[in-house]
Amino acid sequence: MAKEQLEQFRNFCIIAHIDHGKSTLADRLLEKTGTIPERQLQEQTLDNMDLEREKGITIKSHAIQMQYTYPSTQKQYTLNLIDTPGHVDFSYEVSRAIAACEGALLLVDATQGIQAQTISNLYKAIEHDLEIIPIINKIDMPNAMIEEVQDQIIDLIGCAREDILLTSARTGQGVDEVLRAIVERIPPPEGDPEAPLQALIFDSMYNPFRGVIVYFRIFNGTLRKKDRIRFYNTGREYQAEEIGILQLERIPKDHLSAGNVGYVITGIKDTREVKVGDTITAVDRPCDQPIQGFEEVKPMVFAGIYPLDNDDYEDLRESLEKLQLNDAALVFEPESSAALGFGFRCGFLGMLHLEIVQERLSREFDMEVLTTIPNVRYRAKLKNGEMITIHTPNDMPDPVHIEYIEEPYIEAQIITKAEYIGPIIKLCLDKRGTLQRQHYLTPHRVELSFEMPLAEIVFDFYDQLKSISRGYASFDYTPLDYRKSDLVKLDIRLNGENVDALSSLVHRSKAQSFGRQICQKLKELIPRQQFVIAIQAAIGAKIIARETIPALRKDVTAKCYGGDITRKRKLLEKQKKGKKKMRQFGKVQVPQKAFIEVLKIQK
Amino acid sequence: MLNALRQELELTAHYFANRCLSTLYFGGGTPSILSLSEWESLLEAIRSLYSIDDLKECTVECNPEDITSELLELWHAHGVDRISLGVQSFRNEDLQYLGRQHDARQIHRALDTILSSDIPKISVDLIYGIPTTTVDGLIENLRLIDQYDIPHFSAYALTVERRTALYHFIQKGKYPSPDDSAIVEQMKLLMDWARHKGYRQYEISNFGKPGHESQHNLVYWYQQPYLGVGPSAHSYDGHRRRHHVVASNLAYIRSLRSGVLPHRVEYLTDEDLYNELILTRLRLDEGIPKERLLGFPNAMVDHFYDSIEPFVQKGWVVETPVSWRLTADGKPWADAIAREVFYIL
Would residue B71 count as lying in a domain? Predict the structure, then answer.
C-alpha cells in the first residue's frame, strides 16, 4: 500500500547554467502537464522577482507540483519540480534542494556546452545518488554543436549517447520525451508513511500576511494539519496551521505523506528561525535522528553599507530589515565611521549576494548607498590563547597580541577553453591559489581546480577572469577550511589622520601594490588645498606607499568685470556648498566622490 | 550684427532715465575689427540716443595688429579718449604660446602710433605666468611698460579655460601647463615693481598711476548701474535687477531682426547682493567698506565678522577704521577668502 503511494511521485530538479534555458523548460513542463493554462503562463514562471528575471538567475528557489498522465499506461504521476538557486553564493541551498530529489535534469545549452557551475551542481547531485537525465537544449539554434556537447556529457557522466535527450524548450520540441523520461528513469522515492515524521526544509519565504512559509520534502511519516511539529536543529516547536502542496498557488491539504513535497505555515514571523537543511519532525512521535547535511549558513563576505545622505540612516535600517524578511542569509548590525557617518556592517553569502542586496536597496527602497571595501571573516589566535573572529578591519587587534591569523579558503572550479589555460592559471596563482587538478573535458575544454583564499575572489576576481578569457570561463566555488595566513591591516592616512572607511585587511604580499593604488586614486580625487597633503598607506607604523598633493599657491580669479561678477559669484557659491558636503580628516577635506571612487577600485 | 546692435541700442535707450552717459567702453572681444564706416555708424547711433557731453571716459579695446592712425583719428573725433591695448607680452614665444595673431614688432608700432596720436589715455593688458617665460621675461615686459611710460595696465595671471585651443594643447602634452609657484612668484614681483614705480594696485589685476584708474571698470566694482549691449553682455540697474543678452551671435541677430531683445532677467536677493559686494570689494585696494556692509541683515553681518576673523589672524586681511582690506599676502587668496565669507543658506 505504502509502496504504491510512493510509486506515484517523481521528485526532481534542473541543473543548468544561467541562460541555458532552465526557466523556459520549466514553463514548458507546466504547460504540457496542464498545471497552468497556456494563456496564463507568464514567461518563466519560476523566477518571480524582477531582479531575477533581469539577471537571468534564480535567487530564491521554489517548488511546483504537476499531475502527469503517462501516455502508454494512462497512469497518473505527481511530479515535484524543485527549483535550485543558480549562483555560486548559494551552493549550500542548492545542495539542500538536491537532497530533496531523486533525479535531476542536466540541462546543457547546445551552443555553449557545459559550464563550471553546471559541473559543481552535477557533482552535488551525483553525491546524493540522483538519477541524471542529460538534456541538450536549444537544438534549434543555428550554432548548436549537438555532437560536441554530447561528447562532453558522455565524458562527464558516462552515459550512452542515446540517453541524452534533445530539446528546444523555446519551441517545445522534445519536451514530451523529457516528461516520459522523468517517469521512466527517475526512481520513485523510498520511505515509510507510517514511520515517525522526517521532512527536509529546503527553502522558505516570507509572506507579509502569513508569515514565513516553509518548503519541505517528506522522507518518512505523514504530516497532518494542526500537528505539533518540531524543527530538529533549532529545537523550536510550532503548530502546523496550514499545510499543502505548491502549484501556481498554494493548495491546502489535510495531510501529506512520505515522498511528497509541500509547504507548512506556522505563523513564524522571523525568517531566521527557519534554517534551510533542518528536519521537521512531530512533537509527539519524533524521529531518532535528523536528515544529514544540516549546516548553519554563515555569511562569508562583510562590508559596511552607508547611506549617501546621513539623514537616511533610519530609512536604511528599515529597508534592511524588510530585505531580511525574505533573505535570511543577510545579517547586519549598526556601525559608525568617522568618514561615512552611521551605517551598518552587513554579512553576505558572497559577492553576488552583496550586489543583489545593493541592487534591491536601490530598486525596491530607492536607497542609494555606499559600500565599503568587502572583506571575509578572519580568525585570530591571540597570544593569551583566545581565538577571535574579525569581521571588519577595525576589529583587528594590535599585531603584538596576535599569535597567528587564519583566513577562509575555497576550492575554485573553472571551466574554460584550452587556449585560456595559461592566463587563468597565472591569474589564480597571482591570487595566491594553488592548482589542484587540470582535467580535459574534451580536447578543447578544460576543468581547472584551485585552492585559494576566499578574500582573493571578493576583490576583482570575476571581472579579471571574464576579461582574460573573453567571457569563455565559468566559475564556481565551495568553501574549504581556515588556513594560517600572513595578513596585515592596511590603513590609509591623510596628513597622519587615519581614514577608517578606507582601512582593509590584505595579504602582506599585496599590501604595497594595493596601498599604492589607493594613494594614487586619492591623489587624483582630493582637490588641492592651502597646505601640502600627505596620503599614506601604512601597516601599523610603517609607511608602505605615499603620494603628495602639493599645496595650492593661490586662489584668485584673474578677470572680474561686468558679466564675470555673477558667474564668479555663482561658481564660488557652488564650491562653498560642495565644501560643506566634504568629510574632514584633521584639516584635510575629502569629497564624498573620493570614497566612492576608491571603494570602486576593489570591484 | 551692426544692425542688431543699433536695434538693441534703441530698445534699451530707456535704461538710463536721463540718457546721459558718464563712461563708454567698446570691448569684450576685438571691436577694432570694425571698418571705419562701421565705426562711424555705430558711434552715430549712440550719439543719437544718448548725451555724451558729460563723458568722463571713453575706451576702445583693441589688438595691436588693428591699430591705424586713421582709426585713431576717427575715434578721437567721436570722443574716444582711451585705448586699452591687448599686448599680453612683448615676447614672441609667449605670444605664440597664447595663440595670438600679433608679434612684438606690431606691438611697438601700435604703441608708437597711439602715443603720437591725439588720444590721451592708454592702458595695456599683460599676461604673466606663461610657462615660456621666467621671471626675467616678466621683468623685460615691465621695463618696456616703464620705457613707454604707460600710466595704466592690467596684469592677469594665465588662466587656462576649458574648451580653448590652449587647454587642448596642454591636455595633449604639446604645451607645458602653467605652474602655480611661478605664477605666485611673478605676482609678487609685479606687485612690488608696480608699487615702486608709483602705480596703485587699485584692483587685484589693475594698476594705475594716480588719476589713471579706469572709471568704467570702477562702475562694475562699485555696484553702480551699467548697460551692456551685444551678445552675452550683462547689465545692472544698480539695485536688484540684472539682465544678460544671449551669447549666440546668430540667435541675437535673428531675434533683433524681429524687434525682440533676447535676454534673461535675474533679480538679486540680499544674499546675492552681499556675496557680490564681498567678491568685488575684496579685490579693491579700498577693501570692503564697513558702512556698506552694515546695511545688510544681521545674520550676514554676524557671519561676516565670524568668517573674516581667521583671515585677519592669518595676516591676509587687515581691518581699518572704515573697511577690511586684503594685505599683499592675502591677494593671491582673494577667492578662498570670499568663499568663506560668502553667505549661503
Answer: yes
Q: Beta strands A165-166 and A131-137: pairing type? A: parallel
- Measured between beta carbons, the chain B residues lying within 8 angstroms of A572 are 275, 279, 335, 338-339, 342
**Exposure pattern of A220-230 as b/e (b: 16+ CB <10 Å)?**
bbbbbbebebb
Q: What is the DSSP letter of B287?
A: -
Best CA proximity match to A343, nearest among A378, A372, A323: A372
Closest chain B residue to A576 measured between Cα atoms? B339
Give the three cell numbers for residue B246: 544671449
Reference B66, options B56, B79, B78, B75; nearest CA is: B75
d(CA A334, CA A306): 10
B 216-255 residues with CB below 8 A of A? 217, 220-221, 226, 228, 232-234, 242, 244
B286 belongs to a structural domain: no
In tens digits, chain B (345 residues) has pLDDT values of 889 999 999 999 889 888 899 999 998 767 767 888 888 899 899 999 999 888 999 999 999 999 999 999 999 998 899 999 999 999 999 999 999 889 999 999 999 999 999 999 999 999 999 998 889 999 999 999 999 999 999 999 999 988 888 999 998 888 998 888 899 999 999 999 999 999 999 999 999 999 999 999 999 999 999 999 999 999 999 999 999 999 899 999 999 999 999 999 999 999 999 999 999 999 999 999 999 999 999 999 999 999 999 999 999 999 999 999 999 999 999 999 999 999 998
Judge if pTM exceeds 0.95.
no
Q: Do B279 and A577 touch (CB under 8 A)?
A: no
How high is the ipTM of this complex? 0.94
Distance from CA of A554 to the nearest CA of B (A): 5
Facing residue for A553 by CB, picked from B158, B280, B332: B332
Binary contact (A556, B280; C-beta < 8 A):
no
Residue A175 CA neighbour count, 13 Å, CB half: 20
Which helix (H) or strand (E) segment holds residue A430: the answer is helix A421-430
Which residues of B, range 17-46, sit inside 8 Å of A by Cβ? 28
Which residue in A has a C-alpha nearest to residue B268's C-alpha? A566
A534, three cell numbers? 600627505
Query: What is the rounded (10 degree) CA torsion for A153, A155, A160, A164?
Result: 0
Number of domains in chain B: 1
CATH of the domain at B68: 3.80.30.20
Take residue A217 and report the three cell numbers written for it. Answer: 520534502
Range of the domain at B100: 17-220
Sequence-ordered list of residues with C-beta below 8 angstroms from that of B77, at least 6 positions apart, any chain: none
| Contact status of A209 with chain B (Cβ, < 8 Å) | no
Test B344 with A555 for CB contact under 8 angstroms. Answer: no
Please indicate, yes or no, if residue B38 is contained in any of the structural domains: yes
Locate B141 and state its grid cell.
Answer: 615686459
Best residue in A529, A556, A557 for a mutation probing chain B (most B CBs within 10 Å): A556
Closest Cα partner for A378 from A348, A408, A343, A337?
A: A408
d(CA B196, CA A83): 88
Which of B84, B98, B191, B205 is most worth mutating to test chain A (most A CB atoms within 10 A of its CB)? B205
All three cell numbers of A468: 582574460
Find out whether B104 and B143 touch, Cβ atoms under 8 Å. no
Give the contacts of B60 (CB within 8 A, at least 6 positions apart). B26, B27, B31, B32, B75, B80, B82, B83, B84
Distance CA A137, CA A485 (A): 45
Phi-psi region of A252 (alpha: psi -120 to 50; beta: other; left: phi over 0): beta
Specify if B275 maps to a domain: no
CA distances from B271 to A572, A574, B133, B276, B281 (A): 13, 14, 41, 8, 15
Q: Does A532 contact chain B (CB < 8 Å)?
A: no
State the nearest Cα–Cα gap between A384 and chain B, in angstroms: 52
